């Protein structure tokens, strides 16, 4: 292994400072006793208490959570279906067009996507609320799911599906009993990706939300326009905490599973 | 009582299990299978042999139902199986990659097909146990595929494909992933299992030794066509073309012009060299191009000029020492190289010939096969 030179240390420090300094400052100020965001007046957890009593924030959090769960579930189902067809069926008219079009929303500016959805909802006369946000979020989240799932399907040994058919399974049984269990990790990461995308979307939600369906990012954004309050710092810290715990647990679990598997494979070959 | 030789293909009363009738398969402009007619009989161990891309895998996949013929019909027990989807055919396949379901245990892998048939629990239990016993896998029933070795995985794949007691079992390069020693053991195990279960096996392989060892009959394929279908000894001893002779084993091929000389054929093959003689049932026109194919083990090598029909002089160019055998590459004055093989019955230090020695190679009139293509 190469030693750390002074240059490497500086690069590392600069890079990570750039990434994490803003968040560290935010976390520190969430424990500030003062109401003024920029002045430090000693350690306190009172803003966390305040937050818990703030009904508007809690309502918004609940709306966000509902939207995220519904979005990620719907997006996972649709995205997996799309990925399955695009990867498995090699020749059908317009396949290239379809596979290109499924990725278009990934590069489409949020503003345009939000505006077009708003026009659509007005056009077909749906009352704007949680449902419209879910529909809007699903449109772009399912592309991400489809990307994640299709990369797994491409690497998938197709003879497994043929073997299932050969042993008498119907095409649907083959999907349910063989394909789905094997691509499950990709489907789960697709779900989580859709969940986080929906959780932090501000632009599209702003276009498609109704008066009674303010999501947390919308709430925070409007609150910040009136001035940053330590309450928001506290809320953000909680969110950072949840994400950190989730990511660390997931990576530890997958690492342990990989190590376990390698050990078992080695014992099997030796026996 | 004399033991009856297993040769249903010679019995006109025998009904074939599988019949390919004028089967052609095209992928776009590419013809993978070109108008094939082939009968395979019950209890046969039939090998499809050929280089990669010769169409052998396509032929097998049509039997499994993963490909449909572009033209022609395939009959299984007299029934056209063209419109039958793979999950409704009494045919099972063992995949080259084994295709074991990674999320299921060995037991569940073997039970997969039985469960799809809707068999009751006790029947499944008994059958899976039978299969585990047949393939000596009882100890590994609860393991997942990644927890067992390559040879064991191969046996799981075999057990799984046999569990439903198919009429026909297809094996796609079943031993390709095993090392040489294990492969040889497994070949005999396969033959043993085939005999015990009485299932008809069709095996696809590019390994000619494997085909010769396991098969009752071998079909040699090239570019979507059947070159020859015959028993292993016929394929080896009486190939019908230079292609088959060259594909199976080692062979010397000498091209020449045919002259009928009484009951045998005289072959003029080079200026200033004595003509070669061979016996053949085939008729050749005067001056027709023909090829004589002689296996190296049927060519004798000696220091003194021997008596015999075909005697040629040359120099030892190369010696391939294989332990039990040595193959001598003898260069003739014409530039042709004739391979002669000898069993090493004496220690290597007492070898009679060495490089650059002048030697005589010879073979009898019946040793070679005369071919017209």
From TrEMBL, chain A:
<feature type="domain" description="ABC transmembrane type-1">
    <location>
        <begin position="61"/>
        <end position="253"/>
    </location>
</feature>
<keyword id="KW-1003">Cell membrane</keyword>
<dbReference type="InterPro" id="IPR035906">
    <property type="entry name" value="MetI-like_sf"/>
</dbReference>
<keyword id="KW-1133">Transmembrane helix</keyword>
<dbReference type="Pfam" id="PF00528">
    <property type="entry name" value="BPD_transp_1"/>
</dbReference>
<dbReference type="GO" id="GO:0055085">
    <property type="term" value="P:transmembrane transport"/>
</dbReference>
<feature type="transmembrane region" description="Helical">
    <location>
        <begin position="67"/>
        <end position="89"/>
    </location>
</feature>
<keyword id="KW-0812">Transmembrane</keyword>
<feature type="transmembrane region" description="Helical">
    <location>
        <begin position="175"/>
        <end position="197"/>
    </location>
</feature>
<dbReference type="InterPro" id="IPR051789">
    <property type="entry name" value="Bact_Polyamine_Transport"/>
</dbReference>
<protein>
    <submittedName>
        <fullName>Ornithine carbamoyltransferase</fullName>
    </submittedName>
</protein>
<keyword id="KW-0813">Transport</keyword>
<feature type="transmembrane region" description="Helical">
    <location>
        <begin position="232"/>
        <end position="253"/>
    </location>
</feature>
<comment type="similarity">
    <text>Belongs to the binding-protein-dependent transport system permease family. CysTW subfamily.</text>
</comment>
<dbReference type="InterPro" id="IPR000515">
    <property type="entry name" value="MetI-like"/>
</dbReference>
<feature type="transmembrane region" description="Helical">
    <location>
        <begin position="7"/>
        <end position="31"/>
    </location>
</feature>
<dbReference type="GO" id="GO:0005886">
    <property type="term" value="C:plasma membrane"/>
</dbReference>
<feature type="transmembrane region" description="Helical">
    <location>
        <begin position="101"/>
        <end position="124"/>
    </location>
</feature>
<keyword id="KW-0472">Membrane</keyword>
<feature type="transmembrane region" description="Helical">
    <location>
        <begin position="130"/>
        <end position="154"/>
    </location>
</feature>
Automatic annotation (TrEMBL), chain B:
<comment type="subunit">
    <text>The complex is composed of two ATP-binding proteins (PotA), two transmembrane proteins (PotB and PotC) and a solute-binding protein (PotD).</text>
</comment>
<keyword id="KW-0472">Membrane</keyword>
<keyword id="KW-0813">Transport</keyword>
<dbReference type="InterPro" id="IPR005893">
    <property type="entry name" value="PotA-like"/>
</dbReference>
<dbReference type="InterPro" id="IPR003593">
    <property type="entry name" value="AAA+_ATPase"/>
</dbReference>
<dbReference type="InterPro" id="IPR013611">
    <property type="entry name" value="Transp-assoc_OB_typ2"/>
</dbReference>
<dbReference type="InterPro" id="IPR008995">
    <property type="entry name" value="Mo/tungstate-bd_C_term_dom"/>
</dbReference>
<keyword id="KW-0997">Cell inner membrane</keyword>
<dbReference type="GO" id="GO:0043190">
    <property type="term" value="C:ATP-binding cassette (ABC) transporter complex"/>
</dbReference>
<feature type="domain" description="ABC transporter">
    <location>
        <begin position="18"/>
        <end position="248"/>
    </location>
</feature>
<keyword id="KW-0067">ATP-binding</keyword>
<dbReference type="InterPro" id="IPR003439">
    <property type="entry name" value="ABC_transporter-like_ATP-bd"/>
</dbReference>
<dbReference type="GO" id="GO:0005524">
    <property type="term" value="F:ATP binding"/>
</dbReference>
<dbReference type="GO" id="GO:0016887">
    <property type="term" value="F:ATP hydrolysis activity"/>
</dbReference>
<dbReference type="Pfam" id="PF08402">
    <property type="entry name" value="TOBE_2"/>
</dbReference>
<dbReference type="GO" id="GO:0015417">
    <property type="term" value="F:ABC-type polyamine transporter activity"/>
</dbReference>
<dbReference type="InterPro" id="IPR027417">
    <property type="entry name" value="P-loop_NTPase"/>
</dbReference>
<comment type="similarity">
    <text>Belongs to the ABC transporter superfamily. Spermidine/putrescine importer (TC 3.A.1.11.1) family.</text>
</comment>
<protein>
    <recommendedName>
        <fullName>Spermidine/putrescine import ATP-binding protein PotA</fullName>
        <ecNumber>7.6.2.11</ecNumber>
    </recommendedName>
</protein>
<dbReference type="InterPro" id="IPR050093">
    <property type="entry name" value="ABC_SmlMolc_Importer"/>
</dbReference>
<dbReference type="InterPro" id="IPR017871">
    <property type="entry name" value="ABC_transporter-like_CS"/>
</dbReference>
<dbReference type="GO" id="GO:0015847">
    <property type="term" value="P:putrescine transport"/>
</dbReference>
């Amino acid at each position: 292994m190469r030693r750390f030179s002074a240059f490497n240390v500086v690069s590392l420090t600069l890079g990570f400072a750039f990434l994490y300094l803003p968040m560290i400052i935010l976390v520190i100020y969430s424990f500030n006793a003062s109401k003024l965001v920029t002045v430090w007046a000693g350690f306190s957890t009172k803003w966390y208490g305040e937050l818990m009593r703030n009904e508007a924030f809690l309502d918004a959090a609940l709306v966000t959570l509902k939207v995220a769960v519904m979005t990620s579930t719907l997006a996972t189902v649709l995205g997996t279906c799309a990925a399955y067809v695009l990867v498995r069926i090699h020749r059908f008219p317009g396949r290239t067009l379809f596979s290109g079009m499924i990725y278009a929303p990934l590069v489409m500016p949020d503003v345009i996507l939000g505006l077009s959805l708003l026009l659509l909802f007005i056009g077909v006369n749906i009352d704007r609320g949680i449902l419209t946000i879910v529909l809007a979020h699903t449109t772009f989240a399912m592309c991400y799911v489809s990307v994640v799932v299709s990369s797994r399907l491409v690497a998938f040994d197709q003879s497994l599906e043929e073997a299932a058919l050969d042993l008498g399974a119907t095409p649907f049984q083959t999907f349910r009993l063989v394909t789905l269990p094997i691509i499950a990790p990709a489907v789960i990461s697709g779900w989580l990706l859709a969940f986080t995308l929906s959780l932090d979307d501000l632009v599209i939600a702003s276009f498609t939300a109704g008066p009674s369906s303010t999501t947390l990012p919308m709430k925070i954004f409007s609150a910040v326009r009136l001035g940053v309050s330590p309450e928001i710092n506290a809320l953000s810290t909680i969110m950072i905490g949840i994400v950190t715990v989730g990511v660390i647990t997931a990576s530890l679990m997958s690492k342990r599973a990989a190590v376990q598997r390698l050990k078992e494979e080695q014992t099997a070959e030796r026996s | 009582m004399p033991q009856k030789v297993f040769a249903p293909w010679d019995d006109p009363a025998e009904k074939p299990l599988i019949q390919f009738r004028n089967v052609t398969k095209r992928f776009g402009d590419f013809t993978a299978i070109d108008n094939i007619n082939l009968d395979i009989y019950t209890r046969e161990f039939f090998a499809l042999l050929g280089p990669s891309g010769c169409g052998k895998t396509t032929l097998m996949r049509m039997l499994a139902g993963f490909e449909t013929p572009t033209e022609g019909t395939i009959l299984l027990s007299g029934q056209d199986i063209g419109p039958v989807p793979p999950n409704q055919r009494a045919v099972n396949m063992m995949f080259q990659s084994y295709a074991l379901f990674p999320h299921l245990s060995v037991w569940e892998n073997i039970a997969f097909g039985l469960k799809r048939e809707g068999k009751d629990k006790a029947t499944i239990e008994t059958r899976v146990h039978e299969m585990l016993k047949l393939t000596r896998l009882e100890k590994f029933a609860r393991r997942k595929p990644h927890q067992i070795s390559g040879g064991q995985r191969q046996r799981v794949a075999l057990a799984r494909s046999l569990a439903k007691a198919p009429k026909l079992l297809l094996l796609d390069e079943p031993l390709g992933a095993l090392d040489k020693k294990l492969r040889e053991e497994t070949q005999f195990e396969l033959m043993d299992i085939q005999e015990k279960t009485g299932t008809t096996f069709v095996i696809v392989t590019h390994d000619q030794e494997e085909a010769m060892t396991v098969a009752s009959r071998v079909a040699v394929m090239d570019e979507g066509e059947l070159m020859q279908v015959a028993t292993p000894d016929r394929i080896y001893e009486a190939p019908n073309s230079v292609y088959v002779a060259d594909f199976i084993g080692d062979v010397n091929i000498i091209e020449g012009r045919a002259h009928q000389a009484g009951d045998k054929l005289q072959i003029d093959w080079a200026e200033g060299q004595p003509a070669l003689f061979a016996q053949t049932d085939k008729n050749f026109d005067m001056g027709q191009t023909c090829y004589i194919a002689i296996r190296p083990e049927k060519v004798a090598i000696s220091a003194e000029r021997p008596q015999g029909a075909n005697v040629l002089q040359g120099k030892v160019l190369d010696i391939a020492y294989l332990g039990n055998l040595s193959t001598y590459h003898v260069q003739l004055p014409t530039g042709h190289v004739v391979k002669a093989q000898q069993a090493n019955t004496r220690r290597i230090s007492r070898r009679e010939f060495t490089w650059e020695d002048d030697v005589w190679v010879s073979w009898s009139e019946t040793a070679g096969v005369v071919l017209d293509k």
